[in-house]
Design goal:
Blueprint lengths: L4 H8 L10 E12 L2 E12 L3 E5 L6 H8 L9 E9 L2 E2 L7 H7 E4 L10 H11 L6 H14 L3 H4 L12 H13 L5 E5 L7 H16 L3 E5 L3 H7 L2 E6 L2 E7 H5 L2 H8 L9
Parallel strand pairs: 3-8, 3-9, 6-7, 7-8
Antiparallel strand pairs: 1-2, 1-4, 4-5, 9-10
Length: about 280
């Protein structure tokens, strides 16, 4: 476990573990309601530790709704209700004693559209470590910023521009800055909600390859991705959702050869209703 995440895990009252292979996040029977409308129906899903798990499906099937359950972002939506069980390292993240701010440090998120803060490149990355008290000195904070930008593959491009606004970067660079910002508090899990959407092909590929690189550094990734072929090639495990329900899951390499998946997602055909 990273020394930076140790205090966060303790404050959250969740005991993290380094043992592997294991399940980092487990969801069982997850239902989500927006008022009287039900969006998710009995979702069962396991996210393996230090691996890439991908979640794919047609637009509106509930992918983003589900991953927002995992760091309790749905808490801020009026009328949203989550039922079922979601465990992080076998601990219920919806129990009353959980500090949601600390939970979101353990489970970081990269959104579909790059959303750098209206701050300098340096301050974008330093923001999280500052509010969580992860650096005692300016030198320690500098080290976190540099390390995070390096892990996000942005250091060489940004090291001479740290005082410039984060919004001055290109779209792909902004997304990598957002990844660096998430990395800076040493999360154990990063949720990526279509991080390559709207990016040029090369930039999109760089962002997706970053997901794989992060697992090699000990981070667990749950990836929602619009490029199904790329998601299946990148991931270890994959779940397919449609109409708010689990449809198919398995090893990503197996799903690449699945005729139903190939017909719907890899053959250019429109999504049909699952039977």
């Amino acid at each position: 476990m990273s020394k930076l995440t140790q205090p966060i895990s303790q404050d959250l009252n969740i005991t993290a573990t380094d043992t592997q292979p294991n399940t980092k996040i487990s969801a069982r029977g997850v239902d989500v309601f927006y008022g009287a409308k039900q969006a998710l129906f009995g979702i069962d899903l396991d996210v393996a530790s230090r691996m890439v798990t991908s979640l794919i499906g047609p637009s509106g099937c509930g992918k983003s709704t589900f991953i927002r359950c995992l760091n309790r972002m749905n808490d801020v939506i009026d009328g949203c209700r989550v039922e079922g069980k979601i465990l992080l390292d076998e601990n219920d993240i919806y129990r009353r004693s959980v500090d949601v701010v600390q939970l979101r440090a353990l489970i970081g998120m990269v959104f579909q559209k790059p959303n750098p803060f209206p701050k300098s490149i340096y301050d974008n990355v330093a923001y999280g470590p500052r509010i969580h008290g992860l650096a005692a000195t300016k030198d320690e904070l500098d080290e976190i910023v540099e390390s995070s930008l390096q892990r996000a593959g942005l250091w060489n491009e940004a090291k001479d521009r740290l005082s410039e606004p984060g919004t001055s970067l290109s779209g792909g660079q902004q997304q990598r800055l957002c990844i660096a910002r998430a990395i800076a508090v040493s999360p154990e899990v990063i949720l990526m909600d279509e991080p390559s959407a709207g990016l040029a092909p090369k930039a999109a590929e760089e962002v997706l390859e970053m997901a794989r690189a992060l697992t090699e550094m000990g981070t667990t990734i749950l990836l929602v991705e619009q490029n199904v072929n790329q998601a299946l090639r990148l991931a270890d495990q994959c779940y397919i959702l449609a109409e708010g329900r689990n449809q198919i899951d398995g090893k990503a390499t197996d799903l690449l050869g699945n005729s139903v998946v190939a017909d719907i997602y890899l053959g250019g055909k429109r999504m049909r209703k699952w039977e």
